[in-house]
Design goal:
The structure is a homodimer. By secondary structure, chain A is of the alpha/beta class. Chain A is 45% helix and 14% strand. Chain A has 14 helices and 14 strands.
Chain lengths: 394, 394
C-alpha cells in the first residue's frame, strides 16, 4: 500500500514529542517533556469579555470568509509593537497572519525549497522546523550551537560551500537548548549573509520571555533584505488560538500569500479579532510580566535543583529566558536509557535525538520548566538526578 | 530575484476570484461573483451563547495546545450525522479536523502527489482544488462534466490509460457548474475504480443544501476502500470558523496526521468546541432548513429571471441545490468580454476561465445566488441579459 504515498511523506516520522505527551495524561507523572505554556496563566476572563464584544460589534464579519493576509487591525498592532519594543519599522503589508508559527514553516518550505536545496539549521534544532521542512526534501546542514550562537567558523564555511537557500534560527532562548545568540554572533552572521541570495528565518516565539539580561537585536535590524521574521501569540497569550505571523519583504510576501491561499484560504478572523480586542482592552505587557515572573522563578528553581542533585559530569545550559534548558550526560551515555529509568521514578523529559537531523542515541536532553511549580520541580529534578546516578554507575 | 523561489510556487497565479471580490467592495455593484454563504443567516446569537459556555466549562483546555486529530466531541458528532443522514458508519478515528476543506486539499497533495503524477479532475473544476494541487505539480487530466456527472467514457479511458493517483470530484451541486452526478454515473465510476489503487476524493461542501430531488449515495457507500470524504461547516454554519474535515481509512489517516502536524500542529480547538457546543444546544438541521428555504427561493428567482432576460443561444444548468449555476454563451463568444460590458452596468460574475486547467477565453460563466435577494437578482440578471444581447449583436 505504501507505494501510493508521495515520496515526501514516506520518511517523516510522527512527532516524537507529541507521542511522549500522551504519557503525561497520567497525573502522577512529573513532566519536563512538554513544550506547553502554563495554562494557569491564560487570561481566560479577559478573552471571554473580548469575545463577547467581538460578537456584538463584528459578529457577522468575523463569521464570513475573509482576506488571506489576515485582519488589518491585528497586523497594525503587531507592526506597532515591533516599533515600540524593538525600534523596527515594519509596513503592515509585510505581515501575514498564519496558524501559529508552524504554518509559517510550511509556507516557507512550499515557497522556497526545491528537492535537494541546501538549508542551514541549528544543531540541535527546533523539531517542528525539521518536520515541516523535511516534507520539501531539502539537504539539511546543521551548524553547532555554542553559548554564543551558531559556531561562526562552521557557519561561514557552510555559507561559502553550499550557498544555502534558507537559514533557520531561533536566536533567543532556543528550543530545545535555551541558548541565545550574542550580539557579536548576530553581527558576524549578518556580515556573512549580507549581499547573498540566502534568506535567514528568525523565529522568535520566546523573545518577550526574558528573565535576565537585555534584549538582543533582531537580524531584521542589520540584515533587512534577507531576514524573514516569525512571531506568535502562543507563548504570550494562548497557543490554542493558533495565531502566528510572518514578516517578509513585499516580493516574497506576494508568493507567501499564494501559498497561504492554497493551504487554507485564510486564518480564522474570529480569533484574530478576539486577540485584537483583548489587546485593545488590556495591557498585554502587564500580562507578559506576570508570565515572566512565574517562568523566571521556575527556571531558577530548576537551576538550583540541578546544582543540588545532578551528578558531576552532567552539563547544562543557563538560559536568560524561554521555556527550556538543555542538559548533556557524559559522552556515550544515552538519554534514552535515562528516560527508561526516569519513567520508573515517574519523571519524563525529551531525549535529544529528535532535535538532530543526523545523530541518534545522543547524550542530551531537554527540560521544560514552564508548567511545573517550584516544589514539584525540586522533586522531579531530585528523581532525575537519582536516575542519572544510577545510570552512570552501570 | 525570482530564481530564489521554489519551482512549485513560480507558476501558481493568485486566486482570480479573490481578486474579483475586491471589486465588490463597491456597494452599488450587484455581485454574482462571490462564493460566499449569506451572512444574514449566520447564527450569531446562538454561537455567542455557545462561546460563553465554552469559556466557562473548558476555558483553559481550549486555549492550550491540543491534538492534531481534532476535538473528539466534534468528530463524534460528525460520525453520528453520517450515520443518521447517509447511513454511513464512519469510525471517529477516521475523521481528521482541518482548517476548512481547502486544507484537506493541501494535505492530500502533500501526502500523495509526486511531481508528474496523474490526477483526474472535473472539467470545469473547483478552482481551489486546481490551486492547491498545482503546488505539487501533478499532471491534470480533466474529464468533461455532463448533466449526469463525469463523461463516463472519457473517465474510463483516462483511468485505463493513466492509472491516476487521485480523482477529485464534487458530485453534489458542483462548484462552479451546479451539476450533480446521477446515481448511475456514481455506480459506473465506482465499478471502474474498484480494485485499483486510485483514490477518489469526494468533496461534499454543499450536500446538505438540496432544494429539490433526493439525496444521492456517497461514493463511500459502494467504494469504501478508495474513497476519501471531505466535509465542512462553512456552508451550514459559518465559513469564518474555518472548520472542515477529512474521512480516510486508517493507514491513510496515519500519514495525513503527520502532514497536518507539519502544516500547523492542529486546528484551533476553541472554534471546534464552540461548534460542538452550538450543535449540542441547537437544532442544526432546523438551521439548515432555513438556509435551504432562502437559497432555494433565490435560485428559483435566478432561473426565472434567466428565462425572461437571457437571449436565445445562452445555455444554463438547473441545479437541485448548492450556491451556483453555470451559463454558456454561444461558442466563440468570450465571457471575459461579457464581464467588461456587465461591469459598466454594475453587475459582476466569474468568467469560466479559472475553472479550467487548459482552456482560455471560454464562453462560460459562474453565477452565485446565495447572497442576493430576489429583487436584486431580477435587476442583476436583467442587466446581464442586456449585456449579452449587446455582445451577441457585435
Amino acid at each position: 500500500m505504501d507505494s501510493i504515498f508521495s515520496d515526501r511523506i514516506a520518511d517523516v516520522p510522527r512527532s516524537f514529542i507529541r507521542e511522549i505527551l500522551k504519557v503525561t495524561l497520567d497525573p502522577t507523572i512529573i513532566s519536563f517533556a512538554g513544550g506547553l505554556p502554563n495554562r494557569a496563566l491564560f487570561p481566560v476572563e479577559e478573552l471571554k469579555a473580548a469575545t463577547a464584544k467581538v460578537f456584538d460589534t463584528m459578529g457577522r464579519d468575523v463569521l464570513q470568509y475573509s482576506t488571506s493576509e489576515g485582519f488589518a487591525g491585528l497586523r497594525e498592532m503587531i507592526a506597532r509593537r515591533y516599533h515600540e519594543r524593538q525600534n523596527l519599522d515594519i509596513p503592515v503589508e509585510d505581515i501575514l497572519i498564519t496558524n501559529g508559527s508552524q504554518q509559517g514553516l510550511d509556507l516557507m518550505g512550499k515557497t522556497f525549497i526545491n528537492e535537494g536545496d541546501d538549508i542551514v539549521i541549528e544543531d540541535p534544532a527546533y523539531l517542528g522546523a525539521i518536520q515541516a521542512f523535511s516534507l520539501y526534501k531539502p539537504r539539511f546542514n546543521s551548524v553547532l550551537l555554542t553559548d554564543e550562537g551558531m559556531d561562526i567558523n562552521l557557519f561561514k564555511s557552510v555559507m561559502s560551500a553550499k550557498k544555502p537557500k534558507l537559514i533557520y534560527t531561533v536566536p533567543n532562548f532556543q528550543n530545545p537548548s535555551g541558548l541565545s545568540f550574542s550580539e557579536r554572533t548576530r553581527h558576524e552572521m549578518a556580515d556573512i549573509v549580507r549581499g547573498t541570495k540566502t534568506l535567514l528565518i528568525e523565529d522568535d516565539p520566546y523573545g518577550d520571555l526574558r528573565y535576565s539580561g537585555r534584549r538582543k537585536s533582531s537580524f531584521k535590524k542589520f540584515l533587512p533584505d534577507n531576514t524573514i521574521l516569525f512571531g506568535t501569540f502562543s507563548k504570550t497569550v494562548a497557543p490554542g488560538f493558533r495565531l502566528g505571523w510572518i514578516v517578509a519583504p513585499h516580493d516574497i510576501m506576494e508568493k507567501l500569500i499564494i501559498a497561504k491561499q492554497a493551504a487554507d484560504l485564510h486564518t480564522t478572523h474570529f480569533t484574530q479579532c478576539i486577540l485584537w480586542q483583548y489587546m485593545q482592552d488590556n495591557d498585554i505587557d502587564a500580562h507578559i510580566r506576570k508570565i515572566k515572573e512565574c517562568y523566571g522563578r521556575q527556571m531558577q528553581a530548576m537551576l538550583s535543583s540541578i546544582e543540588k542533585y545532578f551528578p558531576a559530569g552532567v552539563a547544562h545550559t543557563s538560559p536568560e529566558g524561554g521555556m527550556f534548558l538543555w542538559a548533556a550526560l557524559p559522552e556515550n551515555v544515552s538519554s534514552r536509557d535515562l528516560l527508561d529509568l526516569a519513567l520508573k521514578d515517574k519523571v519524563i523529559f525529551v531525549p535529544g535525538d529528535p532535535f538532530y537531523v543526523n545523530r541518534r542515541n545522543t547524550n542530551t536532553l531537554r527540560l521544560n520548566f514552564s508548567c511545573t511549580d517550584e516544589e514539584t520541580i525540586d522533586t522531579g529534578i531530585r528523581h532525575l538526578g537519582q536516575a542519572m546516578e544510577e545510570l552512570l554507575k552501570k
